[in-house]
Structures are given as structure tokens and as C-alpha cells.
Design goal:
Number of helices: 6
Helix content: 25-40%
Number of strands: 11
Strand content: 15-25%
Shape: globular
Radius of gyration: 18 Å
Order of helices and strands: HHHHEEEEEHEEEHEEE
């Protein structure tokens, strides 16, 4: 996290120093290296991606525009509170993308944008590298649930309580091959296991928290992906 902040600060400083030149058109900065340019899902993630993702929080119009330029099928969800520290704000109902899902799910708009980055730049490239074919279906275990972390009676709210998380349990390839947690996580030297580990590691480049079988027993059968305040990747 410290390294990311240092690099981001340096890039912003350099960008600010050259703002006058950029404004006059004397210097053209590619959008992927321009901190003020909107997020473009087609561009590979870099040091500015998290900054651009963070600007989508609380900016539903901008976020919807970003999603609208992708293949994601979604519809905005009305803001509502469903319980103490639970509810939906700037959320979208996702029906499908380039992949089909076992069912629709509701997540915050920035999380949906992070998913599209992950799907485009991590999930599908990993499937092609390991199996020579794309993922066509993703199985999830849900996104929104008004509950505390691990469903405990006391403690802080889970990111699921505000639809800021989604749990992914498995994938299906174009030829019908299934890859699922926890069965394909081991042995670690298997092709499916290597794919799952690449997917987990790539998710860490986009999402704030990525929890899987190596984190604890509660996550042995899925990857928990969220955009919360805590940076964890395991």
C-alpha cells in the first residue's frame, strides 16, 4: 500500500507539473497515463488504475458510463437502507458480461468496474494460457447480505452488507470443463490449480481484498473479492 501511494503521489506531482503543457496541447499524454482521464476497461491496469477506480465511488453517472462502454449487462439499483449499516448505494444489478453467471447479482458500481477489469485482463488471458479457450460461465455464491464478518453475532459489518463484495466459486470453459474451489485448488502443481492461483494473484491487482483457500477455512470454497478499506491478498 505504501509503495502504491508513493508512486501515485509521484505521478500526480509530475502530472501537475506538466498540466500547463498538456492543457495547451504541446504535450499529449496517453489516457492510461493521465490521472485525470476516465477509467478505460480496455486498457491494461497500471499504477493509476486504483486511483481511477476510486474516483468512481460516489460518482454513479461516471461509473455507469465506464460500464456502458463494456460488454457488461447491468441496470442501476435504487439506493436503500435495509438495516443498521446495511443497504445499497450506487449499486447495479449485473446479469451477464462476456461470460454467463449462474444468477444475477447486485454489487456496487465500482466493484462491477473492477470485475470487468479482472475479467478482461486476468480471467480470460489466464484461461487462454492454461487451456487455450475462454471462460464462458462463472459461478458465484452471492454478493449482498446484511450480516457481520463471518456471520458473527457481534463485530464489524461485512463488505457484503453493502454489496461491496462478491464470492466466486468456479468457472466453466467453452468446452464444458469446470474448474471449482475447493476441489481444483490442490494438488498445487495441477493445471487447474495453476489457473486458479493465477486468477487469484491477478485479482489482487484490481480488487482491494482477495481472500481464498490460503487465507482461512471459511474461504476454502471460494474467492472473496471486495473493494473495502482493507488491503488483503491471500
Amino acid at each position: 500500500m505504501g509503495r502504491f501511494l508513493r508512486w501515485t503521489a509521484l505521478l500526480l506531482f509530475l502530472a501537475a507539473g506538466g498540466a500547463a503543457l498538456v492543457g495547451t496541447g504541446a504535450v499529449t499524454v496517453p489516457s492510461r497515463y493521465d490521472p485525470w482521464a476516465p477509467l478505460d476497461i480496455t486498457e491494461a491496469p497500471n499504477l493509476l488504475t486504483r486511483l481511477k477506480l476510486s474516483r468512481l465511488d460516489g460518482a454513479p453517472r461516471q461509473c455507469h458510463a465506464v460500464l456502458g462502454a463494456t460488454g457488461l449487462r447491468f441496470s442501476p439499483v435504487t439506493d436503500r437502507q435495509t438495516g443498521p449499516d446495511c443497504g445499497l448505494t450506487d449499486a447495479v444489478q449485473v446479469s451477464r458480461s462476456a461470460v454467463a453467471f449462474n444468477s444475477g447479482f447486485t454489487v456496487t458500481c465500482p466493484l462491477a468496474a473492477a470485475w470487468m477489469l479482472f475479467e478482461t485482463h486476468t480471467l480470460q488471458p489466464a484461461a487462454q494460457r492454461h487451456f487455450g479457450q475462454p471462460v464462458t460461465r462463472v459461478r458465484h455464491l452471492g454478493s449482498y447480505a446484511c450480516r457481520n464478518v463471518y456471520g458473527r453475532a457481534e463485530g464489524r459489518r461485512s463488505e457484503h452488507a453493502t454489496a461491496n463484495a462478491v464470492d466466486i466459486a468456479g468457472f466453466t470453459l467453452a468446452d464444458g470443463t469446470t474448474i471449482a474451489l475447493p476441489g481444483d485448488w490442490t494438488p498445487a502443481d495441477g493445471r487447474k490449480a495453476a489457473f486458479l492461483r493465477e486468477v487469484r494473484d491477478g485479482a489482487c491487482e484490481v480488487f482491494r481484498a482477495v481472500l481464498g483457500p490460503d487465507y482461512n477455512e471459511a474461504h476454502r470454497d471460494h474467492f472473496h473479492l471486495d473493494m473495502g478499506p482493507y488491503r488483503v491478498c491471500r
